[in-house]
Fold each of these.
Amino acid sequence: MKGIIVFASKYGSTAEYASLMAQKLHTEALRASEVPSGAVFGADFIVLGSPIYSYSILPDMEVFLERNKKLLAEKPLAVFVVCGDSMWNPKVGEGGNKNLEKLTRFLPSEPIAVAVLGGRMRMEELDEEDGVKIRAFRERTGREHTGYDRMEEGGALDFINEIKNWFKSSGT
């Protein structure tokens, strides 16, 4: 089976997961903005990944999904999102599963596997605009202006196994 990992990443957490998945699934990881036109057509399955940024997936992923909607409808799709804190504001319904819905609502079919993975944020790596937004958010919520690292290789490996198990059970 030939697959591809298509991802969008702003500060690197999603790219890191995509690279790990590509290695374990013996395929390649491609940025959503750089996927060659024939790559989707030639893939037997596609894994899609995006961080949640400003309450949504990254625009590059949205554009990729819209451009390839017809082809994606013909492929098994697996989906993962990367969140800094999977339950930072449950009062408004945000959290890992809510964030996952932000990506899956763009899909033409039900994914074969899904995952919510923790991310990483280093305050010193943020661009000026994001730094201001994060500091303002932290002040509103009474949290320190520190970064965090919630990367979880184990969760990514579980997701990969879920994909492999789907293929085994489907006889594909």
Amino acid sequence: MRRSLYSSRLMNDTKWREVLLIVAQLRVQFELVLIGEEKFRTGMIFPAERLGPHVIADPGLTGGGPLHYWEIYALRVPRWIKTRHAKTGVLFEDESLGKSFLAHIRALGQLPVEVLAEYIYVWGYGEPFRGKNL
């Protein structure tokens, strides 16, 4: 039997659905990395109706097919976005959307969330195994 490449699943379908529902409601830009991949993909903002109990219907991430929640290794949201002040044209870092996202997901309870300098991460799995695969 082949051993999983990841140490533990930290998120279940219900938790992912709730996090992605917040992403959809806030219309926040996000990125995903799927299991077995090395780079984050830019996620497309989608309507909440696409969130099923176990899959995202046609998320635009996988070539048109459904995306199962168990396939998500991690999701990240920028902590801030650069924007221009409407009257002065001065460029500044707006943290309001990142703070709002963080407040909403923290209200869901204890989740595998990590806040770093540029991004807020929600982890789907623990660290990959470093030992032999069977």
Amino acid sequence: MKQSLWHLGQLLAVVFVIGSIHLVTILNSNYTFPVATLYQLYAVNFIMAIAGYAMIRFAYWLKSQVEGFVFLLGSFVKFAVLYGVFLANETAAIHDSRQAFLHLFIPYATCLIWEIATLSKILNQAPKNSV
């Protein structure tokens, strides 16, 4: 439990720091990207990263050795949700452009990198009953 709280604290810190830098960059460049949409992007990615982490932890707890597959499935679902909510429909807050896609990709990549790093830490843990 302590390790899980540590990992989630790291995610919160990473999202806050990268999100703040991203927001300041948008505000200083006079780019007309809606700030509310940026908050939504980071919130959705944060929530889905927590859900993916919980599923990976549950798979590790079951000793099922499918954590990598759970991660892949979670990444696929995460990208599908982001695409469906923010890009696919006509009333989407982000329209198809390179800069808009970049603003979608930065929160996604931030959480994805954290998930990969955390998954590698989980998978490299020694079993409790060895040695």
Amino acid sequence: MVSLNKILTKGKALYLAYDQGMEHGPVDFNDKNVNPNYIIQIAKEGKYNAMIFQKGIAEKYQKEIRASKIPLILKLNGKTSLRKGEPISTQLCTVQEAINLGAKAVGYTIYIGSEHEDMMFKEFEKIQINAHARNLPVIAWIYPRGKGTEKKSHSELLAYACRVGLEIGADIVKVHWDGKNSKELIWAVKAAGRTKVVIAGGSKKTETELLKETHEAMQSGCIGLAIGRNIWQSETPIELTKKLKKVIWN
């Protein structure tokens, strides 16, 4: 198994995600957070375990990223929200490009339940083999979507997503949890076995909701969060970061 030491602190993690610009378009941004340098500064001041970018930002803001000393997790695939139908996210960046950009880990999204999941599995397999040969950790974004998920409960799909992360050889699996039932999350984490689980920050929440969900996630066996909008849309991102870190490293 590859070492995760460069992107974990005492076995736990807080990642600052900023791949939403491709996934959602600039709808999530304002005049301040539309600038990647603002996100890099938050990551630096907040002493995040890593920041998550697509390759374009990693290339064009390479100087600032390296100067921040915050590890880079490079997302290797992506899609826009414009395309309709069964979800598919294809590879946009190679492991070698990620290494050249100084990445300490790579990420890849798979939509289980989509009619295109087999193609994403095949791409992931090559990425995982290539990355592990270079001692580079691989994080799998596993999101159940598409026709195959119809009539399945959130609990069933959450556990399935975590288990898929283990079965395909991911070092960390990033999943969406709705924050409603911690027993469901406990079971999902068990299903992930020795693959670590991080929870996606998701859509904007109140501070109280976010801290409560983070506490429950940590109590359920997750190692931390990969969070974006709830931080860089906040008026006080550093203060909120400090509160989250207290919960994670309690």
